[in-house]
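Design job #97: recover the sequence.
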């Protein structure tokens, strides 16, 4: 059982209906830059509707190779960040809302790089090259990270972490699930988590379509070959299934970040039955919600691909990922290095990742099946 709600927010409604390829696309227009701050709630719609797309290619092999770097992404603070909100509605799948089956509505807040930052940060040690020129109204095609929040957690709680990734040149999309978000404290149910991997894949499809359409704030912004997923708690369980469960593995995903996650038998498929792309598991030793053995089970069973495990000494379930207090800066640095290495192909990020992830008394980073050191489980 995950912990209770953090904050509520108002979702704005209003729409222009456009017909596209057998479905209706409701576009409310960009709502403008959001505050992105913690505790400010989540902004509301553009809206897009359609049917989910089932990937037809096969997952990567165990001989996963680091892709060739093509863009200059990787240094936190290098890019200014803007925000736009969409609501994607999957008319082929349903949620039980108040006893009624309704199409699955997925409000999604997208942070995206909008140009060079005024002052470049120096907290991340990976060395990016120059950004390649793209087409359309944006200067380049950037990698995509789709983020899945935990049970009854607001997307805004993760703003510092997601902003950090976006400021390094990633398009970061935080999904609000129909029945597990902070907006559903009375009607929420964890039983719906089995539908969330499909939600994540649907959002990936819609964002890639928005980019390839050549119109709107995401025009030509996203590189369809550089997609990652990340999540916390129930959201981590969700993306672990997207990465590694036969029920719902999405072969478009190049790397996965699992923050305090677990395997769920209710997903129905087998985990790690096929080769997986690189996965990073992050876990606090004092977490009593998703306990360390949950993450270790995932890590130890992932023998078909590249795997890393970041242990946070004395850390509990929420604060390493929400807000900016320690050890969140360690989580931010290591996860960005991981994305730089396996999504962007920046070889130097491997060294940076080892440096950021091994901090005495704070964190230990291991990989390839090596067990993390035994430390006290007392909360720090």
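Job complete. Output follows.
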């Amino acid at each position: 059982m995950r912990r209770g709600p953090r904050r509520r927010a108002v979702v704005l409604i209003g729409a222009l209906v456009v017909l596209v390829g057998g479905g209706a696309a409701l576009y409310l227009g960009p709502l403008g830059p959001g505050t992105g701050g913690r505790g400010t709630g989540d902004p509301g719609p553009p809206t897009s509707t359609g049917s989910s797309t089932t990937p037809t290619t096969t997952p990567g092999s165990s001989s996963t190779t680091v892709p060739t770097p093509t863009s200059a992404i990787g240094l936190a603070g290098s890019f200014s960040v803007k925000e736009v909100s969409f609501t994607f509605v999957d008319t082929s799948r349903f949620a039980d809302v108040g006893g009624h089956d309704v199409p699955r509505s997925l409000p999604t807040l997208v942070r995206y790089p909008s140009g060079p930052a005024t002052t470049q940060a120096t907290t991340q040690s990976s060395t990016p090259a120059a950004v390649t020129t793209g087409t359309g109204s944006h200067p380049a095609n950037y990698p995509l990270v789709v983020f899945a929040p935990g049970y009854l957690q607001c997307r805004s709680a993760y703003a510092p972490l997601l902003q950090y990734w976006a400021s390094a040149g990633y398009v970061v999309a935080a999904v609000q699930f129909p029945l597990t978000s902070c907006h559903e404290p009375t009607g929420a149910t964890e039983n719906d988590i089995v539908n969330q991997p499909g939600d994540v894949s649907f959002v990936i499809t819609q964002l890639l379509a928005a980019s390839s359409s050549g119109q709107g704030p995401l025009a030509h912004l996203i590189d369809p070959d550089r997609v990652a997923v990340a999540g916390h708690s129930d959201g981590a369980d969700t993306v672990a299934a997207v990465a590694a469960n036969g029920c719902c593995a999405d072969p478009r995903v190049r790397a996965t970040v699992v923050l305090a996650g677990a395997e769920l038998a209710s997903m129905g498929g087998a985990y790690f039955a096929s080769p997986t792309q690189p996965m990073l598991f992050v876990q606090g030793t004092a977490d009593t919600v998703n306990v360390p053995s949950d993450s270790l089970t995932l890590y130890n069973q992932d023998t078909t691909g590249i795997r890393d495990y970041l242990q946070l000494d004395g850390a509990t379930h929420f604060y390493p990922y929400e807000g900016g207090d320690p050890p969140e800066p360690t989580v931010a640095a290591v996860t960005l290095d991981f994305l730089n290495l396996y999504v962007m192909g920046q070889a130097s990020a491997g060294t940076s990742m080892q440096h950021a992830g091994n901090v005495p008394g704070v964190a230990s980073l291991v990989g390839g099946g090596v067990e993390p050191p035994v430390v006290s489980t007392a909360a720090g």
